[in-house]
Prior knowledge:
Two copies of one chain form a homodimer.
Chain A: E1 20-24, H1 32-44, E2 48-50, H2 66-78, E3 84-87, H3 94-97, H4 103-107, E4 112-115, H5 120-128, E5 134-136, H6 140-143, H7 148-159, E6 165-167, E7 172-175, E8 178-187, H8 188-194, E9 207-213, H9 217-229, E10 238-245, H10 250-260, E11 268-270, E12 283-285, E13 288-292, E14 297-300
Parallel strand pairs in A: 1-2, 1-3, 3-4, 4-5, 8-9, 9-10, 10-11
Antiparallel strand pairs in A: 5-12, 6-14, 7-11, 8-13, 13-14
Amino acid sequence: MPSSIVPQTNLPRALKPGDRIGIAAPASPFDGKSFEAGLGVLESMGFNPVVPEGLFEKNGFLAGTDRHRADQLTRLFTDPEIDGIICARGGYGSMRILPLLDADVLAKHPKVFVGFSDITALIGFLVQRCGMTVFHGPSVTTLGDGNLQTREHLMAALTRAEPLTLTAEAGRTIHSGRAQGPFLCGNLTLFCHLTGTPFQPDLKDRILLIEDRGEAPYRIDRMLTQMRMAGCFQGLAGLAVGAFTDCGSSRQINEIVADRLSGLDIPILAGFDAGHEGVNMTLPVGVPARLDTASKTLSFLNPAVR
Amino acid sequence: MPSSIVPQTNLPRALKPGDRIGIAAPASPFDGKSFEAGLGVLESMGFNPVVPEGLFEKNGFLAGTDRHRADQLTRLFTDPEIDGIICARGGYGSMRILPLLDADVLAKHPKVFVGFSDITALIGFLVQRCGMTVFHGPSVTTLGDGNLQTREHLMAALTRAEPLTLTAEAGRTIHSGRAQGPFLCGNLTLFCHLTGTPFQPDLKDRILLIEDRGEAPYRIDRMLTQMRMAGCFQGLAGLAVGAFTDCGSSRQINEIVADRLSGLDIPILAGFDAGHEGVNMTLPVGVPARLDTASKTLSFLNPAVR
């Protein structure tokens, strides 16, 4: 276990009622009805959602050209009238805009930023290249799905400067132990598709949480095999497993994780409420966390907002 | 265009009637009925298919443990009674056994080796690590599908020491030009899942042919994006596009290829008969080839067998 906690240099400010939350669409176009429902939820939380011009662009499976999506996202960070950012949807396309983002510019404007699934590419970029603390949590189009716990967790995470502790109530220990390190969280498929690129996630000393959706068990095996072969898991401090939705049984996923990460001797704990089904907890990425299979907890050691 | 042709050091011997073809199952278990049909086709060609003990092992989505599959494959190469090798099926699992194969041992036993899809991982290994010439072509379980051209091409490729020329009759030029280099061929998904690993294909100066099946257009885009970002296409001499089955329209695939490889200024020609539908030509991997969009041809410059 590393003795010192990596300092967080770039904490966003906590949101408060009336704050303006800019909506970003860095990946795929999205469904209007779910989007409206999600906006309604943000309003019911007391926020003021801001829909930028050009948000509804459509370019095949992308929400506009790469340049358009990169510029839109950059503008949300640099605009002083915008207090926080939430993504409309994942889908696909975030990784395409990474070469068009200027890490130095974004790093000067730390803001609450929320998304998941395809947005994993941006989460990794903002945390690793900009030293920012960001949030793995619901998108606008999933926020209206009626899950009240998801909403409550989002509200708490974005507004309270208090460290969070998650308990995997029905969690399954795949490898016992306790470890701590800066937290990273995202979609396995996306991490896998960044492997070998300049944007490959650096997992050394980190506590990693992975989730996925709609990938057959052999595909989960293939992704973990690639990442293991590529050395991605070297030095990883601990692994938390979130929801694997429509990926086969959780027993099978846990067996695959145990097999593909065998020999690493790090704590691995499955059963966290993060991902594409049920409760999608809002988790602070970049914040130091401790994973403990004895207490089945993932504890964040610092606040995620100031 | 490189002025010299990379020498082939490790040519297999051409097969002749009565030769013993060993069946390998380095990936997934397979369907008995298609397998029997394929064996019948090999027999009708005058070959003597050899089914090794343990071929029907099953370990979830794998045809036995990694050690079992690696040992079986190694034995087929080293056994002097076996004249050639054809894979029962792809599926998934070839990449898992790569670290268990001894390239020096295999390189001493060049033999006709045929497979495709998941077998791409082995094709890359045998060509790049062993300097062997191998064949991208049907597996036993696809050979019985009734496609007579696939069978005729397989027979010709394995038995005749004559260079082959392929014409993409209804081929579509994505970027015009002419180039030559050693030929590599395989499944895009597999190439993508080797990216960042020690088994990443070295595409420099090569003519590459890709095919795939059952991957949505945004996934094809994502794979090409990853490989481009990882630098895989740097120095690539030319690209041939085979069948993209159940991946959306060929027009859309061609557009994605054009977009993701834009700026490379290499010949790109789509419409070759290789992959998961229709005719699956048996193509010699490792042999120098010339891709010419004017004549819509992929011409092999040397024989693939001695």
